[in-house]
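Action item from last meeting closed. Structure (287 res):
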C-alpha cells in the first residue's frame, strides 16, 4: 500500500465530493470483462472500486461476460469453440456449458470477491425472475443459441438495489419455451442500463477508448455525440470489434441513459478515474 500523508488523503476526498454528490442515489451499470477479468490485480481493483461506489451511496449493477472461461471449460470437456464473425456459435450443448460457467462459477466467484472486499452482493442470471427474456438472434448467419434481448425485467434488479445489494448479472437469457441463450455482454449491459434508466453505463474494454488512429493512444476521442456515430463508421474510425461496443453505447443513450463510457479496463481503478475526476479516462457517448 502506498504511504500517503493525511493532508493528501483529505484533499483527495474533498476533490471527490462533487462527484459523490452527483452520483449519490443514482444507478451506474458496469460491464465487466476483457483483461480486467483475467488479471488478479485488475480484478481486485475493479471489485474494490465497485464496493467503494456502493458504500458511498451509488447503486452499482455489475454485468459480466466470461468468454475465456467458457472456452477453457469447453476445451476441458473436449468440445470445440467455434466463432462466426467474432461471435461464439452456440449449439444446444454449448449453451448448457455457457449457463454452467457464467451463471455458476464465474458469477459466484465475483460475488464472493465483492463480499470479501466488504460489499453486499447477490448473483443473478437472466433466467432469475424472468430478468432477461430473449429470442434466437436473426440475420443471415445462424449462430445457434445466441440470443437477442426482447425484454429486461427491471423490477428484479430494483428489488435487489432497494435491499442494498450489488446485483451481479451473468448474460444468459431465456424464452417461454425453456430455451437458454448466450447473450453478448456489451449488448446485455446496454439493455439493462436502458431498462433501469441508469445515470451511466460503463463498458470496460482492452483499449483506451475510441481512437482516431488505432495505433496511437494519444488520438483518444474524449467525447462523441451519438448522432456522429454513423459518419465515424463510414470514415473507418469506428470499425471491427469497436462497432458492436459503440452500438451498445448508442442504444443505451437512446433509451435515456444519460452517458455511456468506453474505458480502459487494463488500468487499475479506471472506474474511479472515470467517475470521480474531471478529466476522466475513456470516451464518453451522449446526446
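Sequence:
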Amino acid at each position: 500500500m502506498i504511504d500517503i500523508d493525511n493532508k493528501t488523503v483529505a484533499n483527495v476526498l474533498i476533490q471527490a465530493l462533487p462527484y459523490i454528490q452527483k452520483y449519490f442515489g443514482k444507478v451506474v451499470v458496469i460491464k465487466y470483462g476483457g483483461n480486467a477479468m483475467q488479471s488478479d490485480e485488475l480484478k481486485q481493483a475493479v471489485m474494490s472500486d465497485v464496493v467503494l461506489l456502493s458504500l458511498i451511496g451509488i447503486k452499482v449493477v455489475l454485468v459480466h461476460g466470461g468468454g475465456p472461461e467458457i472456452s477453457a471449460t469447453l476445451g476441458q470437456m473436449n468440445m470445440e469453440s467455434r466463432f462466426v464473425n467474432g461471435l461464439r456459435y452456440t449449439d444446444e450443448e454449448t449453451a448448457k456449458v455457457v449457463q454452467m460457467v457464467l451463471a455458476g462459477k464465474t458469477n459466484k466467484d465475483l460475488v464472493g470477491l465483492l463480499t470479501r472486499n466488504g460489499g453486499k452482493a447477490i448473483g443473478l442470471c437472466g433466467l432469475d425472475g424472468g430478468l432477461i427474456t430473449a429470442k434466437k438472434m436473426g440475420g443471415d448467419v445462424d449462430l445457434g443459441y445466441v440470443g437477442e434481448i426482447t425484454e429486461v425485467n427491471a423490477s428484479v434488479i430494483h428489488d435487489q438495489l432497494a435491499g442494498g445489494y450489488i446485483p451481479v448479472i451473468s448474460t444468459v437469457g431465456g424464452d417461454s419455451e425453456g430455451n437458454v441463450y448466450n447473450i453478448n455482454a456489451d449488448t446485455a449491459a446496454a439493455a439493462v442500463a436502458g431498462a433501469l434508466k441508469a445515470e451511466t453505463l460503463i463498458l470496460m474494454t482492452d483499449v483506451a477508448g475510441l481512437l482516431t488512429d488505432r495505433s496511437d493512444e494519444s488520438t483518444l476521442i474524449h467525447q462523441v455525440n451519438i448522432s456522429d456515430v454513423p459518419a465515424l463508421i463510414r470514415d473507418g474510425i469506428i470499425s471491427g470489434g469497436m462497432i458492436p461496443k459503440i452500438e451498445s453505447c448508442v442504444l443505451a443513450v437512446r433509451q435515456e441513459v444519460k452517458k455511456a463510457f468506453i474505458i480502459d479496463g487494463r488500468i487499475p481503478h479506471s472506474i474511479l478515474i472515470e467517475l470521480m475526476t474531471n478529466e476522466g479516462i475513456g470516451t464518453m457517448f451522449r446526446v
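Note appended to the action item: The first strand starts at residue 27 and ends at 32.
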